[in-house]
Amino acid sequence: MVTETTTAKAVLGVYQPGSAHMVGDGFPVRNLFPSNDLDRAVDPFLMLDYAGPQYFQPTDHPRGVGEHPHRGFETVTIVYDGVLAHRDSTGSGGVIGPGDVQWMTAASGIVHEEFHEKEFAKKGGTLHAIQLWVNLPRASKMSAPGYQTILKADIPSVDLDGYGTLRVIAGSYLGKKGPAHTFSPVQLYDVQLNAGGRARLTVPDGDTSSIFVLQGRASVNGSREAGEAELIVCERNGSQVTIEAQEDSRLLVMSGTPLDEPIARYGPFVMNTKTELIQAVQDYQAGKMGHLS
After folding, report:
1. CA gap 219, 209 in Å, rounded
2. What pTM was computed for the model?
């Protein structure tokens, strides 16, 4: 982050969820992108699914998503309420609860599952989470897969002049560095702002910046107010992003340096060419991404 005089980013638009569906039997999501055709405007971010908040009845059979593959990008799961359990083909696994983050690097290929944690499922409760997909640069798409459990206690928090708090998940803010390892410059902030509060952020000119409203109402650089489950997307030009909260608000700020590379998608695979997608399907079918035991 820098603090010199800056030019405000114009707001491209305010977007509502473009689709809603159930992922597996445990994640009722509203999708903000790619359903709104924002690839260039949010690059390097590929997908934002907003799960819940929804109450689940107690059960002895945890809900979720069974074994499935990924290649070419990273998944970032942020939990606000509820408890999730992860297991993957590298042998990694973890449990994350409110305030925690799971950052999985699929890269050359990984197979994983995500379920409601057993005790949470047995007791029942509210699930409230976000899953982001973050693209990998062409040069890193076939690197080794990995997994980061980022606990709430390890995420630095910055006071916003008494207006609220900003947690630095990735990137940095006012000298506080987030714990997430990233392959390209990314800032990911969990922000809580009181009604009437303001947060002024400065990002590199040319970076993409978008602000998702989980709760409350907020505006950016004089845009129209955005409410629950709406996304404010800024133009690339400019470097100042000023968020104003009209109500007590919870926000996710996403900013990053665009990769500006071709994007080829097929289900759980995101590569640069159709040929690479065909290879990804063949490699998964041949067991080259591993399986869960």
Report:
1. 13
2. 0.94
